[in-house]
Each structure stands twice: as C-alpha cells, then as structure tokens.
Design a protein that fits this description.
- By secondary structure, this protein is mainly α.
- About 70% of the residues lie in helices and about 0% in strands.
- The chain has five helices and no strands.
- Keywords: Chaperone.
C-alpha cells in the first residue's frame, strides 16, 4: 500500500498536514486505545509511513522510487518488444 494513501494525504501535502493526519490515525489505532486484533499491525504501518514521508530526503527517494512518470508510452512499448525479441 502507498504510504500517502495510508495516511490519507497527497504527494503535495505539507509537513504540517502529514503530521496532523498521522496523529489522528495514531490515536485511532494505538494499541493502548484500540483493542482490535489488527490495531497493532495497522499502527506499525502508520508509523513506518510517517517516518518515511515526514522526512524530506526519505520522502523524495520514496516518490522517485515508487512513482514513474511516463512521458512517451512508445518508449515503454519499444523497450518491452526489444527485450522480448532478444
């Protein structure tokens, strides 16, 4: 799952918006406040997502590694067929 989707924010969200979304979800799924079986696991996922996208350097690397912008679809097709025919 995408870290931005998990926290309910967009890629262009500010640090303050990310922190606010994290705190809301952390309070909701914190194991001390939520007795559900999946609460602990969900809380850990929320923490990991926040750790990555709250730090500007980690966020930049995450965006670069997980979001590919295709400028020309023919490049992808040409690459696919080139590799398939070798």
């Amino acid at each position: 799952m995408d870290h931005f989707e998990l926290l309910g924010v967009t890629r262009t969200s500010t640090t303050t918006e990310i922190k606010k979304a994290y705190r809301k979800l952390a309070n909701q799924f914190h194991p001390d406040r939520n007795d559900a079986a999946e609460a602990k696991e969900k809380f850990q996922l929320i923490q990991k997502a926040y750790d990555i996208i709250s730090d500007p350097q980690k966020r930049s690397l995450y965006i670069k590694s997980n979001y590919t912008i295709i400028t020309d679809p023919r490049e992808i097709a040409d690459s696919f067929w080139h590799n398939a025919l070798l």
